[in-house]
């Protein structure tokens, strides 16, 4: 049994000691989920160092489109420039630090600071600064850039001066799975922002296991409840579902082979900086989409896919994102920390660029399953946050089906060790 440090120490010492005490196969100690100093260190070690999923290409379809994303204390400005290239900058005016853009700021020409009218081009160059003295060099005061990569229509940024190695290699392995869905040309059908009353790690841990999936009746219409189980560990009550899964999986593999779609599992969740898991997997019932009967939620299929019965492409990346990409639509989930006990979950639904609302898809049908699932998960995360915040909490053991939770915690602890050793 572990307990918080009983002697006074610096925040760095407390974090170092807690990292050293971490027992593989058990949940993290309470302060990892509750203490401000641990939260601040998470920002420094994880969110300010790693590649973070923040958006999708379809949120900025036209030159001049811009939006901002909050990552802890950082604000990142995303824009599409006149050459249709996506760019990212720190959302801070170089004059006296005012924010340039708040939230979704639509589309316009140059970026104009609302405070003193300093004006920037979409490439970040300072174009106009009123009333400056002779000799003022605008070239020295462009917006500070942020590293940005688009991978198959998914947008990632890295706040570090030097991004961690390995992202390009991971992207080259992920992108072939995504390209047939043509997400870079898709359009946003809906988006939700849900503030969960829990630490960002609890949100991610909750997503990485189906041990609790009985709490998701809408999702379990089509999502097989055997996710995470090994063949030998599947309980008797889930055997019928597993037999349905085996039949659907065999049929899908034949379809993937015929269409030339990559589908095999790649799972590298804790032994690399850009850690990920990707796989095409079967859905239950009609096997087409996340709907009550499993049929497609949108008549227009993504890309030029010839059939709706393709199950779902599941992609997960450490530290803050997961995606479900189907034949008829795609869903992107991004987890962004707000405070030690509050987290923003952004969910974005994408459809074919020519799909018409009310004709090809009904927005409620499209969103119903995952809106319900997100709300159910938010309730569970809040319960967990209240529990880990109490004096009786001690780290508990993971079940075999929670191996991806262990992988996440192992990856996270490794990032903290890296930061402590800098």
From TrEMBL:
Keyword Oxidoreductase: yes
Pfam families assigned to the protein according to its UniProt record, in alphabetical order: Rieske (PF00355), Ring_hydroxyl_A (PF00848)
InterPro entries xref list: Rieske_2Fe-2S, Rieske_2Fe-2S_sf, Ring_hydroxy_dOase_asu_C_dom, Rng_hydr_dOase-A
UniProt xrefs under SUPFAM superfamilies: Bet v1-like, ISP domain
Taxonomic superkingdom: Bacteria
Spans traversing the lipid bilayer: none
Keywords linked to the UniProt accession: 2Fe-2S, Iron, Iron-sulfur, Metal-binding, Oxidoreductase
UniProt cross-references to CDD domains, sorted A to Z: RHO_alpha_C_GbcA-like, Rieske_RO_Alpha_N
Domain Rieske: 51-157
Cofactor(s) needed: Fe cation
GO molecular function ontology, one term from the record: monooxygenase activity
Matching PANTHER family: CHOLINE MONOOXYGENASE, CHLOROPLASTIC (PTHR43756:SF5)
Record protein name field: Rieske 2Fe-2S family protein
The organism of origin for this protein: Streptomyces qinglanensis
């Amino acid at each position: 049994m572990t307990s918080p440090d009983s002697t006074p120490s610096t925040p760095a010492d407390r974090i170092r000691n807690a990292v050293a005490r971490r027992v593989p196969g058990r949940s993290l100690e309470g302060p990892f989920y509750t203490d401000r100093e641990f939260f601040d260190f998470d920002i420094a070690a994880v969110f300010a160092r790693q590649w973070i999923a923040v958006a999708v290409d379809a949120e900025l379809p036209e030159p001049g489109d811009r939006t901002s994303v909050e990552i802890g204390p950082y604000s990142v400005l995303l824009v599409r420039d006149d050459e249709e290239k996506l760019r990212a900058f720190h959302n801070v005016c170089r004059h006296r630090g005012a924010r340039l853009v708040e939230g979704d700021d639509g589309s316009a020409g140059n970026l104009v600071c609302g405070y003193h009218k300093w004006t920037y081009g979409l490439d970040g160059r300072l174009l106009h600064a009123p009333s400056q003295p002779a000799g003022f060099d605008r070239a020295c005061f462009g917006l500070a850039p942020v590293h940005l990569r688009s991978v198959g229509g998914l947008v990632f940024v890295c706040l570090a001066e030097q991004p961690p190695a390995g992202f390009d290699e991971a992207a080259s392995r992920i992108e072939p799975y995504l390209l047939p869905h043509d997400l870079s040309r898709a359009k946003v059908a809906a988006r939700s922002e849900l503030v969960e009353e829990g630490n960002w790690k609890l949100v991610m841990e909750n997503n990485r296991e189906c041990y609790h999936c009985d709490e998701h009746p809408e999702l379990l219409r089509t999502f097989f409840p055997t996710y995470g189980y090994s063949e030998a560990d599947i309980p008797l009550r889930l055997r019928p579902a597993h037999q349905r899964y085996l039949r659907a999986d065999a049929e899908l593999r034949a379809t993937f082979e015929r269409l030339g779609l990559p589908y095999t599992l790649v799972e590298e969740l804790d032994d690399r900086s850009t850690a990920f898991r990707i796989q095409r997997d079967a859905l239950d019932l009609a096997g087409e989409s996340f709907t009550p009967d499993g049929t497609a939620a949108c008549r227009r299929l993504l890309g030029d896919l010839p059939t709706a019965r393709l199950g779902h492409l599941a992609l997960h990346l450490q530290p803050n994102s997961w995606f479900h990409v189907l034949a008829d639509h795609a869903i992107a989930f991004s987890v962004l920390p707000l405070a030690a006990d509050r987290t923003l979950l952004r969910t974005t639904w994408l459809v074919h660029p020519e799909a018409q609302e009310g004709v090809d898809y009904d927005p409620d049908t499209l969103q119903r399953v995952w809106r319900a699932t997100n709300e159910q998960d938010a309730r569970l995360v809040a319960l967990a946050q209240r529990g880990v915040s109490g004096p009786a909490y001690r780290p508990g053991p993971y079940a075999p089906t929670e191996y991806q939770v262990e992988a996440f915690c192992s990856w996270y602890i490794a990032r903290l060790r890296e930061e402590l050793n800098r």
